Amino acid sequence: MASIDSDLHSYYSARAPEYDNVHLKPERQADLRAIEQWLPPIFAGADVLEVACGTGYWTQFIAPVASHVLAIDGSIETMNIARGRVPKDRVDFVVGDAYALPKSAGKFDAAFAGFWFSHVPKPRRVEFLRGLNSMLKSGAKVVLLDNRFIEGSSSPISEQDVDGNTYQSRKLIDGRTYRVLKNFPSETELKSSIDGLGARPMLTTWDFYWAFTYVAKGSSA
């Protein structure tokens, strides 16, 4: 799994300057506007842990309503873009590992991961969610936001491995091509992944995106 994580980190570091081009696709604009309205009220007044903040596209909508945001990402390149999008006094940025979240940060009222869960290898889903749960207070709100596979809009699936993970071949503007793990979990998979970790699961869908929300159960970790 280490090579997959390394490849993903290299890809997003290289893609940082052009990452937000994905938000310019004409067919996705109505969905994006809807989610930009839907998301902030969930985090109003909360101390939020954001995992894989990327360029801060979603951080910019969460930060104005949250009491504070700790935004973590593995790529300095994307995080540098994110810093310019939000008030410095509302967000702390930390370069870190989504599978080894900083325990010293304390417990949070809420958590958000945008377009990250689809990059988590299937055998590591529970590992990631357990680690996330250990950072949360009992009753914390959790939102996983990601995109649906839509023929003609999504990059085609190029291969599948023995664990059922699917991959896309993605080409940057400069011509470099990367093999990127990108899964599209079903509602059943999402619900089973939080067994013992969360309650009140709910899947909300738009034409091009999905959001899976749940309430975290207490953790002694």
Brief sketch in words of this structure:
The protein has 221 residues and is α/β, with parallel strands linked by helices.
Give the SSE map.
Blueprint: H1 2-15, H2 29-38, E1 47-51, H3 59-62, E2 68-73, H4 76-83, E3 91-95, E4 108-114, H5 125-133, E5 136-147, E6 157-160, E7 166-171, E8 177-181, H6 187-193, E9 198-205, E10 209-216
Parallel strand pairs: 1-2, 1-4, 2-3, 4-5
Antiparallel strand pairs: 5-10, 6-7, 7-8, 9-10
Description:
By secondary structure, the chain is α/β, with parallel strands linked by helices. The protein has one domain: Vaccinia Virus protein VP39 (Rossmann fold, 3-Layer(aba) Sandwich), CATH 3.40.50. It has six helices and ten strands. The protein has a seven-stranded mixed β-sheet with strand order 3-2-1-4-5-10-9, sandwiched between helices. It has a three-stranded antiparallel β-sheet with strand order 6-7-8.
